[in-house]
């Protein structure tokens, strides 16, 4: 007699990896023109050329989006987030055969909308305060934003409870947890990416480019020189590729930062100009992006023959970012490899020929985004007078006057203003 779903999945936590149901293999999405052009090559070199051509195409497209500005980069991040969510959640549907669960596909996407509404609403309230202040309909949404977000989530939570069906309970709760973990991985991390972007495009480009550089150079070094396996989760990863990728990424990050630090477009915080309704990147560059002279340690002076060197302070930070991208970032990829092995799949999807899904290309980026955000808040970001001024301008006139009196009294006590000064 055929077991019902509850019995089938009731013992899921006791099963080993070999008992996990198979997921249909990915289809080959390589364009026919490439297949014909590379038909005479071995499988190894064919994959090399497919990956190389598609990598170059993606890099060129990325440069085009950078040229189009900050807003297009934000749309790119949002698009990648949605696609990654779709790829991970689809694996859950396939593995647990949950296509027939009542409401569940709709609820998964509903929760995605709720979480995005919360995070991006917080961003609007934080960075676009002046713009919001001028529009009464937005003032209500921002004032009660967290309550509205909570109410929307509660509606989804109640719909989930109402959708519970006998003999599907455990499977439904598996998928409920799967959806929330996927939201944690994709939405929160993409939100941090955009937060980093607002600090200045350089905080977005250097980390992302470092991960891309490490991925490419580690693959190249591993392809040509790889002999020693690095980790069982990824049999193709080698120590030669890992070490070669590390040194290449540090050098790349240092040089790439030097060129970016020379341009306001990349170093200035991204701000919204409510007068022109555009994002602007104009400012007086901070000390991080002003050339300074550093003394070379005596030990290195004998090797390099230099007593001092001129560089931007940010280049020192780029070494920390590149080091993380090379040594810790790959563990995001190892984590993804373990996930795929657990569910017997080669790639998250077949969106990009030779590369797999979008999530296969951005598994390390999400870990990097969190590190950069923590790094900025811990070592870089200080009090922001510009943001504080925007918040003060939102206050009612009597509240602004109270702030003025309190600040004046404080400055007088510290001797910065004379007691006789009249406002």
UniProtKB/TrEMBL annotation:
Q: Which organism is it from?
A: Nothocercus julius
Q: In which pathway does it act?
A: Phospholipid metabolism; CDP-diacylglycerol biosynthesis; CDP-diacylglycerol from sn-glycerol 3-phosphate: step 3/3; Lipid metabolism
Major subcellular site: membrane
As recorded in UniProt, its EC number(s) are 2.7.7.41
Name its GO BP terms in alphabetical order: CDP-diacylglycerol biosynthetic process
- Provide any one GO MF term from the record: phosphatidate cytidylyltransferase activity
Look up keyword Methyltransferase and say if it applies: no
The record ties this protein, via PROSITE patterns, to: CDS
Pfam family example for this protein?
CTP_transf_1
Q: Where are the transmembrane segments?
A: 48-80, 101-120, 140-162, 174-194, 200-226, 238-261, 314-336
UniProt keyword annotation of Protein transport present: no
Top class in the EC scheme: transferase
Q: Where does it live in the cell?
A: Membrane
Q: Which InterPro entries match?
A: PC_trans, PC_Trfase_euk
Question: What is this protein's record name?
Answer: Phosphatidate cytidylyltransferase
The UniProt similarity line reads: Belongs to the CDS family.
Write down the membrane topology. Multi-pass membrane protein
Keywords, comma-separated and alphabetical: Lipid biosynthesis, Lipid metabolism, Membrane, Nucleotidyltransferase, Phospholipid biosynthesis, Phospholipid metabolism, Transferase, Transmembrane, Transmembrane helix
List the catalytic activities from the record.
Answer: 1-octadecanoyl-2-(9Z-octadecenoyl)-sn-glycero-3-phosphate + CTP + H(+) = 1-octadecanoyl-2-(9Z-octadecenoyl)-sn-glycero-3-cytidine-5'-diphosphate + diphosphate; 1,2-di-(5Z,8Z,11Z,14Z)-eicosatetraenoyl-sn-glycero-3-phosphate + CTP + H(+) = 1,2-di-(5Z,8Z,11Z,14Z-eicosatetraenoyl)-sn-glycero-3-cytidine-5'-diphosphate + diphosphate; 1-octadecanoyl-2-(9Z,12Z-octadecadienoyl)-sn-glycero-3-phosphate + CTP + H(+) = 1-octadecanoyl-2-(9Z,12Z-octadecadienoyl)-sn-glycero-3-cytidine-5'-diphosphate + diphosphate; 1-octadecanoyl-2-(5Z,8Z,11Z,14Z-eicosatetraenoyl)-sn-glycero-3-phosphate + CTP + H(+) = 1-octadecanoyl-2-(5Z,8Z,11Z,14Z-eicosatetraenoyl)-sn-glycero-3-cytidine-5'-diphosphate + diphosphate
Kindly state one GO CC term assigned in the UniProt record.
endoplasmic reticulum membrane
């Amino acid at each position: 007699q055929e077991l019902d779903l509850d019995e089938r999945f009731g013992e899921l936590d006791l099963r080993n990896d070999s008992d996990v149901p198979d997921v249909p293999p990915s289809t080959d999405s390589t364009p026919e023109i490439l297949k014909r052009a590379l038909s005479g090559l071995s499988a190894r070199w064919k994959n090399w050329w497919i990956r190389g051509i598609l990598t170059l195409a993606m890099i060129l497209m990325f440069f085009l989006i950078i040229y189009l500005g900050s807003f297009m980069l934000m749309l790119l991040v949002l698009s990648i987030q949605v696609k990654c969510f779709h790829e991970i959640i689809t694996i859950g549907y396939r593995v647990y055969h949950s296509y027939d669960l009542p409401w569940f596909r709709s609820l998964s996407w509903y929760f995605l909308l709720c979480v995005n509404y919360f995070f991006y609403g917080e961003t609007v309230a934080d960075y676009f305060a002046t713009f919001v202040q001028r529009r009464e309909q937005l003032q209500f949404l921002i004032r009660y934003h967290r309550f509205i977000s909570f109410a929307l989530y509660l509606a989804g939570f109640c719909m989930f409870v109402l959708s519970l069906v006998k003999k599907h309970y455990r499977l439904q709760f598996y998928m409920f947890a799967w959806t929330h973990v996927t939201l944690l991985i994709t939405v929160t991390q993409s939100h941090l990416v955009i937060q980093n972007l607002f600090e200045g495009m350089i905080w977005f480009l250097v980390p992302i480019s470092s991960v891309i550089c490490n991925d490419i150079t580690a693959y190249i070094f591993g392809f040509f020189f790889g002999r020693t396996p690095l980790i069982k989760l990824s049999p193709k990863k080698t120590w030669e590729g890992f070490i070669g990728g590390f040194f290449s990424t540090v050098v790349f990050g240092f040089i790439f930062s030097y060129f970016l630090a020379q341009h306001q477009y990349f170093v200035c915080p991204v701000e919204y100009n409510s007068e022109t309704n555009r994002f602007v990147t104009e400012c007086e560059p901070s000390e991080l992006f002003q050339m300074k002279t550093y003394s070379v340690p005596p030990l290195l002076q004998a090797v390099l023959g230099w007593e001092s060197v001129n560089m931007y302070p940010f280049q020192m930070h780029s070494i920390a970012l590149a080091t993380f991208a090379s040594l810790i970032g790959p563990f995001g990829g190892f984590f993804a490899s373990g996930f795929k092995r657990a569910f017997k799949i080669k790639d998250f999807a077949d969106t990009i020929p030779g590369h797999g899904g979008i999530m296969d290309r951005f598994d390390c980026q999400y870990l990097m985004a969190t590190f950069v955000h923590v790094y900025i808040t811990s070592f870089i970001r200080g009090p922001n007078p510009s943001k504080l001024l925007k918040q003060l301008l939102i206050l009612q006139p009597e509240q602004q006057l109270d702030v003025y009196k309190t600040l004046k009294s404080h400055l007088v006590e510290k001797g910065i203003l004379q007691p006789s000064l009249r406002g």
